[in-house]
Design brief:
With 151 residues, this protein is an alpha/beta fold. It is built from six helices and five strands. The longest helix has 21 residues. The radius of gyration is 15 Å and the shape is globular. The structure holds 1,3,4-trihydroxy-5-OXO-cyclohexanecarboxylic acid.
Length: 151
């Protein structure tokens, strides 16, 4: 099973960016932990500060991935294009936010993206990515049990 994690703008700065909100770990460090924890899955990680690059990666995920974990950063609140891409690809997609966006500024309460995702995890820190992967793996296994193994 292939799961693609996509991080949007400014998330390349994790570990250095507002550590009181986002924690002390870089995503690269955390990604190594995820790969150990989910050794049976094929995990890929992509980060970009550019909306178009995230769109291209989502289209690509629609062809190649069995699930997407998407932290679109501030684009979650502003980008109809990213919301449209998630709706278009139909690959199961879980939205993650490290911080609890609903406990923060009002402009973070709006999310074009959330309604197009299968679910949303917000405010559980980096653990939100692991929980999203657990859900996607469970969903994939359940589908296989119902349909028989994919060839
Ligand atoms: C974030 C929340 C967004 O509001 C913010 O713009 C980010 C990070 C989070 O993971 O908590 O860049 O997506």
């Amino acid at each position: 099973m292939r799961i693609l994690i996509i991080n949007g703008p400014n998330l390349n700065l994790l570990g250095r960016r507002e550590p009181e909100i986002y924690g002390p770990l870089s995503f690269e460090e955390y990604f190594q932990q995820l790969k150990t924890r989910f050794g049976g899955l094929h995990l890929e990680y992509f980060q970009s500060n550019h909306e178009g690059a995230i769109l291209d990666k989502l289209h690509d995920a629609g062809m190649r991935a069995d699930g997407v974990v998407l932290n679109a950063g501030a684009f979650a609140h502003t980008s109809i294009a990213i919301a449209d891409a998630v709706a278009a690809i139909r690959t199961p997609t879980v939205e993650v936010h490290i911080s609890n966006v609903f406990a923060r500024e009002a402009y973070r309460h709006q999310a074009y993206l959330s309604a197009k995702c299968d679910g949303c995890i917000t405010g559980l820190g980096l653990e939100g990515y692991a929980l999203a992967i657990e859900y996607l793996a469970h969903r994939f296994r359940s589908a296989q049990t119902l349909e028989g193994p994919q060839v």
